[in-house]
Amino acid sequence: GRHLLSVQQLDSGLLSQIFELAELVDPIAAGTVRCTVLDGAVLGSLFFEPSTRTRLSFESAFLRLGGEVTTTTGFTFSSMAKGESIHDTSRVVSGYSDVMVVRHPDKGSVAEFAEASVVPVINAGDGDGEHPSQALLDLYTLTRELEARGKTVDGATVAIVGDLKYGRTVHSLMKLLTLASGITFRLFSPPSLELPLEIENYVAERGHRIIECDSAGEAVSGADAVYATRVQRERMTEEVLATANVTGNLLNRQILHDAGAQDIVIMHPLPRDSRHDSFDLSSDVDDLPGLSIFHQTDNGLRIRMAIFLVAMGCSAEAVKAATKNQS
Ligand code: CP
């Protein structure tokens, strides 16, 4: 089907198609031209976990393409609060929608939604599983940022620091990056929050290199980009959190400076956790030239527009024919 559940479904051809559509829709995303290609279509947006970027950018993407949006958030405001199953919920809502976007706290649950749905389902994050639309916007941003510096993703060295165990954006991005050639990953995480073996093997089997580092400074040293993540506290019991050594290690300006990495491309899926002193990205890097976190969020709108176009079988020609200058 045309579901998007995992980055493992993507190949270089589909990746290029999505990135080309993301370029094409740029003026539509910016609001300078209007598009009605999805006129009459309805998005069913189901978020059973908190979200700012993913939900609002998916919904804005659908609206910018001329469609309409229905939405429910949390477990309290749908009949799942009365014990309705994923199967029944999905079958019902898919009967009201042309495409569904689903976020759910359990790994594998969005695939269950897809099985029962009569329309395409897009995974907007399933527990500590995957977050494919995030990986697409991350790779799109990384590609553009490196190209602006005369570099390519092929052969790049990418530092990834933070919670590598529960961070689904890391899992999806590392798998997606295997479509490039010769990536070197430099990893640094708390000892209790290391990358799952499954992801390590997936990357290694495809010929890419992983280097385990002992500090954030060591990880960013010589890297072209750094991808920092927060500790996914909502996925840990209090017990695990208490024993996990997650304090300190905020990636900041001083660490980048000391590692000679003050010009590195700086990425983070966001949100940054401003309430805890633990593995994350400090806001004191925000005026460094490589800061790309808001390029990621802006590109997210364009990438999610492209994802809808592919899921709904809309060509670039159909988009152009349904686009007119704002008057
Ligand atoms: N990056 C990301 O998924 O953000 P939200 O949880 O706010 O959607």
How would you characterize the overall build of this protein?
Residues 155-309 form the Aspartate/ornithine carbamoyltransferase Asp/Orn-binding domain. Residues 2-143 form the Aspartate/ornithine carbamoyltransferase carbamoyl-P binding domain. GO terms for molecular function: amino acid binding; aspartate carbamoyltransferase activity. The protein has two domains: 7-129 and 297-325, Aspartate/ornithine carbamoyltransferase (Rossmann fold); 132-295, Aspartate/ornithine carbamoyltransferase (Rossmann fold), CATH 3.40.50. Strands 8-7-6-9-11 form a five-stranded parallel β-sheet. The protein is globular. The protein is 38% helix and 17% strand. With 327 residues, the chain is of the alpha/beta class. The two termini are 39 Å apart. Residues 51-54, 125, 134, 269-271 line the site of phosphoric acid mono(formamide)ester.
Mean pLDDT: 95
- The structural domain count equals 2
State the strand order across the main sheet. 8-7-6-9-11
Secondary structure tally, helices? 13
CATH class of the largest domain: Alpha Beta
Give the structural class.
alpha/beta
Largest sheet: 5 strands, parallel
CATH topology annotation of the largest domain? Rossmann fold
Overall 3D shape: globular
Q: What are the distinct ligands in this entry?
A: phosphoric acid mono(formamide)ester
Low-confidence regions: none
CATH hierarchy: architecture of the largest domain: 3-Layer(aba) Sandwich
Question: Cα-atom Rg, whole angstroms?
Answer: 20 Å
What percentage of amino acids are in beta strands? 15-25%
Instruction: State the end-to-end distance.
Output: 39 Å
CATH homologous superfamily title of the largest domain:
Aspartate/ornithine carbamoyltransferase
Helical residues, percent: 25-40%
